[in-house]
Amino acid sequence: MNVYDSERMYELMKPHGYKISQNYEESDLIILNTCHIREKAAEKIYSELGRIAPFKKESNIKGKQLNIVVAGCVAQAEGKEIIRRQPIVDIVVGPQTYHRLPEILNRLSNKQRKIVDTEFPIENKFDELKKNRINKNAVAFLSIQEGCDKFCSFCVVPYTRGAEYSRPVLDIISEAKNLIQQGAKEICLLGQNVNAYHGLYKNRTMSLSELIMEIANLSGVKRIRYMTSHPADMSEDLIAAHGKVDILLPYLHLPVQSGDNNVLEFMNRKYTAESYIKIINRLRNVRKDMAFSSDFIVGFPGETKDAFNNTLNLVKEVNYCQAYSFKYSRRPGTPGSVLKGQVAENIKDERLSKLQSILNEQQLNFNSKFIGKSFDVLLERIGKKDNQLVGKSPYMQAVHVKTKNYKIGDTVKIHILRADKNSLEGKCI
Ligand code: SAH
Ligand code: SF4
């Protein structure tokens, strides 16, 4: 979603004469769009600001104005504390106020050198953003839902992104059409909790499955996917859509976090390991080649050795194609940070490496299964080698191919020759 928001910020600034620069030296404006989800992500911003500081100093000496903006969820959570810790920052805007950036930059003057705007606004950000997107990529991100009311006890999102909000259907359809006109072949529908989507359509609300069917009917769209979904919101109609809509990819990111029911309860996740497995099986029933990825947190307070083993058992049962796994990071202000039974760092390390070794093995096995087989690949970017293009399989694997006959945006049948954990290599057939 930060990628989407960054694209939106560029679209806001372009009419004011800004263009994307390749380095800090030649920039008049630097925007750091930040993530607050784990401590490590949040701390990164201060080291980056440290790297930027000499450029600010030099521009001051030259009498040039280099404006530095911190946006995103760290901005929302820390507000003016950011300017206190790093006075080179001029502007702090949150995920719900960045649409005001051009106006805020206008307001900066010799008298007012610092502006913090992180109050959740009355106006709707999406109504204020440009209607025409600037996006020439084969894969386009489209935010349809933002914020979250789930309040998982480890997570900052409900506090930084705010309450759950679904964009109206017709706004989304018009943005999708605009992206397709510019060459998008795959639409990735985004939301912190995307399958809780319930957007206004005429005088009723539409679910995510209905929205997917509307988008599937637009001419020119070749692939649809969505992320990130919460297991408790995997409704029957959404599961059924995977069996009905051909261009909905047979891949789903469905974070489980833990395979232990006690830990899931401490996390306030609102499902059990058994109900999660049931969803996976139902999806495999409607589309037998469904592949799943997930997020995991190890070392959440109260996670015993047995509880961790339950996570390993769940992983073995589901057999993931890919996954992200993290050590629990205590986030100030979240209920998890003050729970009893915090797990020692060395135990977290041990558990993470055990979990990752199984997940890595599953990922390699998943990829290796495709050697000697063929599937459609959507070409997305230029590779590092001569005449090489890189695309994605229907299961979100990166696929490398050497070809002079195709270009980015083409869907090509590729025969897979080699596989490793992170990518596949093949030839056009
Ligand atoms: N809405 C999604 C997740 C969004 S956050 C869901 O409900 O699954 C992305 C991922 O970051 C989470 O799935 C979780 O695995 C991880 N994460 C969030 N807070 C964390 C924390 N405090 N410590 C470690 N990992 C965390
Ligand atoms: Fe965070 Fe996802 Fe839970 Fe919402 S559902 S609180 S975004 S982990």
List the helices and strands and how they pair.
Elements: H1 2-13, E1 29-34, H2 39-61, E2 67-72, H3 73-78, H4 81-85, E3 91-93, H5 101-107, E4 115-117, H6 125-128, E5 139-143, E6 145-146, H7 157-160, E7 165-166, H8 169-181, E8 186-190, E9 198-201, E10 204-207, H9 208-216, E11 223-227, H10 236-244, E12 251-253, H11 261-266, H12 273-286, E13 291-298, H13 305-318, E14 322-327, H14 345-368, E15 374-382, E16 388-392, E17 398-402, E18 411-419, E19 423-428
Parallel strand pairs: 1-2, 2-3, 3-4, 5-8, 8-11, 12-13, 13-14, 17-19
Antiparallel strand pairs: 6-7, 9-10, 15-16, 15-18, 16-17, 18-19
Iron/sulfur cluster binds next to helix 7.
Protein architecture, described:
By secondary structure, the protein is α/β, with parallel strands linked by helices. Among the domains are: 2-117, Rossmann fold (3-Layer(aba) Sandwich), CATH 3.40.50; 374-428, Beta Barrel (OB fold (Dihydrolipoamide Acetyltransferase, E2P)), CATH 2.40.50. The chain contains 14 helices and 19 strands. The chain has helices at residues 2-13, 39-61, 73-78, 81-85, 101-107, 125-128, 157-160, 169-181, 208-216, 236-244, 261-266, 273-286, 305-318, 345-368, and strands at residues 29-34, 67-72, 91-93, 115-117, 139-143, 145-146, 165-166, 186-190, 198-201, 204-207, 223-227, 251-253, 291-298, 322-327, 374-382, 388-392, 398-402, 411-419, 423-428. The protein has a 5-stranded mixed beta barrel. Strands 1-2-3-4 form a 4-stranded parallel beta sheet, sandwiched between helices. It has a 3-stranded parallel beta sheet with strand order 5-8-11, covered by helices on one side. α9 (208-216) packs parallel to α10, α10 runs parallel beside α12 (273-286) and α13 (305-318) packs parallel to α14 (345-368). The mean pLDDT is 96. Bound molecules: S-adenosyl-L-homocysteine and iron/sulfur cluster (SF4). Residues 148, 150-152, 155, 157-158, 192-193, 230 line the site of iron/sulfur cluster. Residues 148, 150-152, 155, 157-158, 192-193, 230 line the site of iron/sulfur cluster (SF4).
